[in-house]
Write a structure and sequence with these properties.
Blueprint lengths: L4 H7 L8 E6 L11 E6 L4 H13 L4 E4 L5 E3 L4 E7 L6 E4 L2 E5 L4 H10 L2 E2 L11 H7 L2 E2 L2 E2 L4 E7 L5 E5 H4 L7 H5 L2 E8 L1 E2 L2 H18 L19 H7 L6 E2 L2 E3 L7 E3 L5 H19 L8 E3 L7
Pfam family, one: MurB_C
GO molecular function: FAD binding; UDP-N-acetylmuramate dehydrogenase activity
Organism: Clostridium thailandense
């Protein structure tokens, strides 16, 4: 039973009813295509709406989770109690000379394309990273020798007092897949990037090359959440997994990709339990063989399914 249905009525004071969904299946809102229902899913269309939803949840003591486009997220089969705020409709991107300002729901690929259209270099590395700007800033996303910390100037966030404030690069405390956003539970609304003028053809060629390499090496044809594990210091997670003999290992329809063992993929009908059990199996086997701890890069939230 959805005990937060009554709360959805209060949300109509802030949001249009079309931006409120009851018992939304999270498998339809994550790139892994797994996950049970959330009591209430909302998709605000302005910063002010995000602030008001978060305030309402706090006043009524309703759990509130903020997500971008669900590309680095594993939701358990029992789903999520409370409210999920999905920022996908906050996707505006604007350019001012060498500055790009992107709202949190904008896709990294789209920002990369806009940069290329404006002959701005520095964002090519992100062209194939699945996910949105807000999550990328929070995780300091990176690939191919580039990362968000190289180009970010500042972020507009909601702090823990419900205020919209701008924090600069130093205050973001960016590290490997870490930031003050994650540490403090801030909500990203908008990010400002400083790029450089470059040769448009060279920028486009670089993007095409990275997309080709990604397509050749990564299992993009299957649902996943990207790289499942963080890189252990001094090692590569994919090599450790492969050297443990786990490439192709499966639990249900969850599989360690035969194309890239750093990815756990959904072959079609995997449950979150399948994925989680496979993650645990990989962690245990790698620990036993190499005495290295693997930590998940994917964010795991939600409840176990009571009948599983």
């Amino acid at each position: 039973m959805n005990r937060f249905k009554d709360f959805s009525t209060k949300l109509t004071n802030v949001l249009d009813v079309r931006n409120i969904e009851i018992d939304a299946l999270m498998k339809n809102h994550t790139s892994f295509k797994v996950g049970g229902p959330v009591d209430i899913l909302v998709t605000p269309e302005s910063f002010e709406q995000v602030v008001e939803v978060v305030k309402l949840c706090k006043v009524d003591n309703v759990p509130c989770f903020i997500i971008g486009n669900g590309t680095n997220l594993l939701v358990k089969d029992g789903g999520i109690r409370g409210v999920v705020v999905k920022l996908c409709k906050l996707d505006n991107i604007r350019v001012d000379d060498e500055i790009i300002i992107a709202q949190s729901g904008a896709q990294l690929k789209d920002v990369s394309d806009v940069a290329a259209e404006n002959s701005l270099t520095g964002f090519e590395f992100a062209c194939g990273i699945p996910g949105s700007i807000g999550g990328a800033a929070a995780m300091n996303a990176g690939a191919y020798n580039g990362e968000i910390s190289n180009v970010i100037e500042s972020a507009k966030i909601i702090d823990n007092n419900g205020n919209i404030v701008v924090i600069n690069k130093e205050q973001l405390e960016l590290g490997y897949r870490m930031s003050s956003i994650l540490k403090n539970g801030y909500t990203v609304l908008e990010v400002t990037f400083k790029l450089n003028k470059g040769d448009q053809q060279k920028i486009v060629d670089r993007i095409n090359d990275l997309n080709r390499r990604r397509s050749e090496k990564q299992p993009l044809e299957y649902p996943s959440a990207g790289s499942t594990f963080k890189r252990p210091e001094g090692y590569f997670a994919a090599k450790l997994i492969e050297d443990t003999g786990l490439k192709g290992m499966s639990v249900g329809d969850a599989e360690v990709s035969t194309k890239h063992s750093g990815f756990i993929i959904n072959k079609g009908n995997a449950t979150a339990a399948d994925v989680l059990n496979l993650i645990k199996l990989v962690q245990k086997r790698v620990k036993n063989k190499f005495d290295v701890d693997l930590y998940t890069e994917v964010r795991i939230i939600g409840e176990e399914c009571s009948n599983m």
